[in-house]
Amino acid sequence: GQNIDQPTEMTATEGAIVQINCTYQTSGFNGLFWYQQHAGEAPTFLSYNVLDGLEEKGRFSSFLSRSKGYSYLLLKELQMKDSASYLCAPGSSGNTPLVFGKGTRLSVIA
Amino acid sequence: DTGVSQDPRHKITKRGQNVTFRCDPISEHNRLYWYRQTLGQGPEFLTYFQNEAQLEKSRLLSDRFSAERPKGSFSTLEIQRTEQGDSAMYLCASTELAGGPPDTQYFGPGTRLTVL
Asked: Which of A30, A48, A96 sits opposite B104 (nearest CB)?
């Protein structure tokens, strides 16, 4: 089975930095996905980590520790448009369907 | 082809009616997934296809639900005798299945179903 835990809600100020954590327990783990989902819209791909460490992509970075079953998404220079839910999803070998966490709803305030 | 498309985007129906949704994946993506999402939850897996073969169905998929992908391209999801608990966003995703690490799943805009 799979168990994914991430905070339900977070609030941060425009221009600040926020870190969204995700812990997971899954069999056949083969990388971790982060998706962004604005209210009423479909999830959009943000990042995929297969190796331990930090991967930076513009204002967004994602970190993975396979041994700890832990990942985080780091958002820098927050903008109002970053207000959305952020979904953590560990991937398994064989392209089996993703199991998503409940998502972290981020509110960016002025 | 710019992405996964789904039709309709919104569907309102009365309890007991049948509904059918369509998903057109990204061209040449051989894996197609259906998920369901309710408010405050992440997407939950329903079923998936590799080409025209349905490989797995979730226990969430009761016998009122059926999905097809007859020619390995577009897929349909039918819900018979809808219930109010079926109200949700139905998401379709596709991936190329290039082998190796999991391939990114690309989602369509979803079909929002409301059962009255």
From this structure: A48
